[in-house]
């Protein structure tokens, strides 16, 4: 539960950073490439450390390295693209990698404990996917509502301008258009 809250807060921080970033700038492209390269080199180093281990702990080590790489690459891609779709896709990919790690951890168990572990991993995956999609829908709904409110406020301002005539009316309409972005 605590991890879910931390992930949600991290996701909100990532989303705000993604919306603030502009993918068209050379700095953003360089930052994206640097983050992607850093994630790849960290993966290679972690993967090399895993070679000293054998059995299920090695598999867990490899999946943890993969998860770290996926998280780094996907978060960088979401910030670089700066879109809600990219942010949601990033969260879905990270959830999938987390699921893969959880499944490998379950391999070490036997019997009912293994079955429960696998079901818990699936439940966590489904919850993360549902949260990502729900957050996307909520953000889209807020954006649409904001646009609708702005349009309604613009119509009110235009209607108020009907009380004037000539240049005063033109000035009023122009001010309303600039204020409401129309």
Order of helices and strands: HHHHHH
Query: Mind telling me the C-alpha Rg?
Result: 24 Å
Distance between the ends: 45 Å
> Whole-number average pLDDT?
86
Low-confidence stretches: 4-23
Biggest sheet details: none
Question: Counting H and I runs of at least 4 residues, what is the number of helices?
Answer: 6
The proportion of strand residues reads under 5%
Shape assignment: elongated
Structural class: mainly alpha
According to DSSP, the number of beta strands is 0
What is the percent of helical residues?
over 70%
Signal peptide: 1-23
Keywords: Signal
Protein name: Cell envelope biogenesis protein TolA
Organism: Massilia frigida
Task: Tell me about this structure.
- This protein is mainly α and about 180 residues long.
- About 85% of the residues lie in helices and about 0% in strands.
- It is built from 6 helices and no strands.
- It has helices spanning about 1-20, 25-50, 55-80, 85-105, 110-160, 165-180.
- The longest helix is centred in the last third of the chain and has 51 residues, at about 110-160.
- It is elongated, with a radius of gyration of 24 Å.
- The two termini are about 45 Å apart.
- This is Cell envelope biogenesis protein TolA.
- Keywords: Signal.
Can you lay out the helices and strands and say which pair or pack?
Blueprint lengths: L1 H19 L5 H25 L5 H26 L2 H23 L4 H51 L4 H15 L2
Keywords: Signal
Protein name: Cell envelope biogenesis protein TolA
Keywords for this entry:
signal; single chain; 0% strand; mainly alpha; 182 residues
Condensed summary:
Keywords: Signal. The protein has helices at 2-20, 26-50, 56-81, 84-106, 111-161, 166-180.
């Amino acid at each position: 539960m605590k991890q879910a809250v931390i992930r949600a807060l991290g996701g909100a921080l990532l989303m705000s950073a993604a919306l603030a970033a502009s993918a068209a700038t050379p700095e953003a492209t360089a930052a994206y490439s640097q983050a992607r390269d850093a994630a790849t080199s960290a993966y290679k180093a972690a993967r090399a450390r895993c070679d000293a281990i054998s059995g299920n702990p090695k598999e867990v080590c490899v999946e943890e390295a993969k998860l770290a790489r996926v998280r780094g690459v996907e978060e960088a891609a979401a910030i670089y693209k700066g879109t809600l779709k990219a942010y949601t896709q990033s969260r879905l990919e990270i959830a999938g990698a987390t699921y893969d790690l959880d499944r490998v951890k379950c391999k070490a168990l036997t019997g009912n404990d293994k079955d429960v572990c696998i079901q818990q991993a699936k439940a966590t995956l489904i919850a993360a996917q549902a949260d990502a999609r729900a957050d996307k829908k909520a953000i889209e709904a807020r954006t649409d509502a904001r646009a609708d409110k702005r349009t309604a406020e613009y119509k009110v301002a235009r209607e108020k301008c009907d009380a004037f005539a000539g240049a005063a009316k033109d000035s009023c309409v122009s001010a309303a258009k600039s204020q409401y972005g129309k």
